[in-house]
C-alpha cells in the first residue's frame, strides 16, 4: 500500500511541546494556542502527515479521564466507552489546516498497565483490556470520520515484556478491523524479543525507533516485513540536541538500502513534547530536509 504518491513521506509520532496561552485566551481554552502552534510548526517544518501535537496532556490521561468506571488511575467499576468523542475536536482543527493528518491514541495494553484495579469486577489487567478496547473502537470511528489519513495506536508497553501479547494482538485487531483508514502501531524500545508477534500484528504500518535504538534495524532486517510499511524513526527523540541533517540522511539511506524507499514512512523515534519548542521544530525541519535530499537522489 502507499500512504502518499511520493517516496519517503514524513510524519510525526505524536506529541509536540505545548505552548502556554496567556491572557483572556487562556481562560477560554488553555490548550488552543498550543494546538495551533503545534499544527503550524509542523506545516512550516514541511511535515507531510501532521498530528495535533497531543497538547492536552499525556496520551493515557487524555483517554482515561473520560471513561466511566475509571477514577484517576484506578478502575472502580465497569469500564464503558466515553459519552462522546474525546480527541475529535483537535483532530478536526488539524484536518482543516492540512490535507493529511495522523490521529493517535494510547493502546489498550498500555492504558491497562497504567491502571490499578480497585473493583472485584475484574481479576487482572487482561480482563479490563477488552472493555478499554471497546471504548477505543468507538473513538477510532469518530476520528475516521474527520478525514484522517492514518490512525496510530501507541503501545510502548509491548517492548517491555510484561504485556500479554495474545491479548494485545486481539485488541489491536479489533481496533484496526473496525476502520477503513490505514492503521499504525507505534512501539518504543528494543523490539528484539517481540519481533515475530509484532510483524504479525494486523496493522498496515509498524512504527519503531531506530535512531536511538539501532539494534532494531538489524532485528527487523532479518525478518520478512511482507506488505507492511515501516514507520522509520530517524530523529533521536531522547537527545536534547537537534540531529544534524547529515546524520539523518545517513539513517534514511540505511533504511532505503534495506527496505526500499516505498516501504518507509519517515518520522522521529517518539514524541517530542519534552523538548523546547525550538529544538522540536529544528528536529522536524532537519528531518524533512534530509528526506528531501535522499528523495532527490533516488
From TrEMBL:
SUPFAM superfamilies: UROD/MetE-like. Residues 8-292 form the Cobalamin-independent methionine synthase MetE C-terminal/archaeal domain. Keywords: Metal-binding, Zinc. Pfam families: Meth_synt_2. GO terms for molecular function: 5-methyltetrahydropteroyltriglutamate-homocysteine S-methyltransferase activity; zinc ion binding. It comes from the Archaea. GO terms for biological process: methionine biosynthetic process. Signal peptide: none annotated. Its cofactor is Zn(2+). This is Methionine synthase vitamin-B12 independent. It comes from Methanolacinia petrolearia (strain DSM 11571 / OCM 486 / SEBR 4847).
Amino acid at each position: 500500500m502507499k500512504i502518499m504518491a511520493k517516496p519517503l513521506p514524513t510524519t510525526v509520532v505524536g506529541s509536540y511541546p505545548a505552548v502556554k496561552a496567556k491572557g483572556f485566551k487562556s481562560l477560554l481554552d488553555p490548550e488552543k494556542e498550543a494546538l495551533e502552534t503545534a499544527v503550524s510548526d509542523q506545516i512550516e517544518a514541511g511535515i507531510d502527515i501532521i498530528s495535533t501535537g497531543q497538547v492536552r496532556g499525556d496520551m493515557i490521561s487524555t483517554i482515561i479521564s473520560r471513561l466511566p468506571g475509571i477514577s484517576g488511575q484506578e478502575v472502580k467499576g465497569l469500564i464503558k466507552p466515553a459519552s462522546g468523542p474525546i480527541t475529535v475536536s483537535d483532530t478536526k482543527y488539524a484536518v482543516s489546516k492540512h490535507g493529511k493528518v495522523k490521529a493517535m491514541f494510547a493502546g489498550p495494553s498500555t492504558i491497562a498497565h497504567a491502571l490499578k484495579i480497585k473493583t472485584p469486577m475484574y481479576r487482572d489487567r487482561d480482563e479490563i483490556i477488552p472493555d478499554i478496547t471497546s471504548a477505543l473502537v468507538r473513538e477510532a470511528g469518530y476520528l475516521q470520520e474527520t478525514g484522517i489519513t492514518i490512525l496510530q495506536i501507541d503501545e510502548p508497553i509491548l517492548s517491555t515484556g510484561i504485556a500479554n501479547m495474545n491479548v494485545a494482538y486481539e485488541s489491536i485487531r479489533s481496533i484496526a478491523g473496525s476502520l477503513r483508514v490505514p492503521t499504525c502501531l507505534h512501539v518504543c524500545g528494543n523490539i528484539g524479543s517481540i519481533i515475530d508477534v509484532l510483524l504479525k500484528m494486523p496493522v498496515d504500518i509498524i512504527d519503531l525507533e531506530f535512531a536511538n535504538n539501532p539494534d532494531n534495524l538489524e532485528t527487523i532486517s532479518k525478518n520478512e516485513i511482507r506488505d507492511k510499511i515501516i514507520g522509520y524513526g530517524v530523529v533521536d527523540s531522547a537527545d536534547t540536541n537537534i540531529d544534524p541533517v547529515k546524520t539523518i540522511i545517513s539513517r534514511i539511506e540505511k533504511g532505503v538500502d534495506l527496505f526500499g524507499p516505498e516501504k518507509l514512512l519517515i518520522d522521529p523515534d517518539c514524541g517530542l513534547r519534552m523538548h523546547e519548542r525550538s529544538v522540536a521544530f529544528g528536529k522536524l525541519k532537519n528531518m524533512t530536509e534530509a528526506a528531501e535530499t535522499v528523495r532527490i537522489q533516488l
